[in-house]
Design brief:
The structure is a single chain. This protein has about 110 residues and is mainly α. The protein has a domain of about 55 residues. It has three helices and no strands. This is DUF1049 domain-containing protein.
Length: about 110
Amino acid sequence: MARPFEEPVGTGPQVPVGDPVGSDDPPSSPGAHDARPGVPPEVARGKGIRHTRTGATWTGLVIGTLVLVLLLIFILQNLDGAVIMALVGSIRILQIRRAANRQRKLTS
C-alpha cells in the first residue's frame, strides 16, 4: 500500500526573520541588528535576567498589597452594609446554637 507524500516538518526554506532581503531601510527597532561578540543574544536584548522565586515573591507582595488596599477602600465605603451583614450573621449563629442545644437535650 502506498503512503501519500508527506513533507517533513521544518525542512522548508530557511528565511531569516526581520527585514526583507535587499532592504536598505534602517532597522525597525533600535538595536535590532546589534551584534556583540561573545554576548548571548538573550543578554544583548536585555532578557538575561531569569525568573526567580525572589522575583515572584516580590511581584506577589506588590499585587497582594494593591488588592488589600482596594479591598480596604471598598469596605470603608460600604461600612453600613458591613454592619448589616455582621448583624444578620450574628443572628444566624444564635439560631444554629439554639438548634444544636435543643438537639443535644433531646439525645441525652
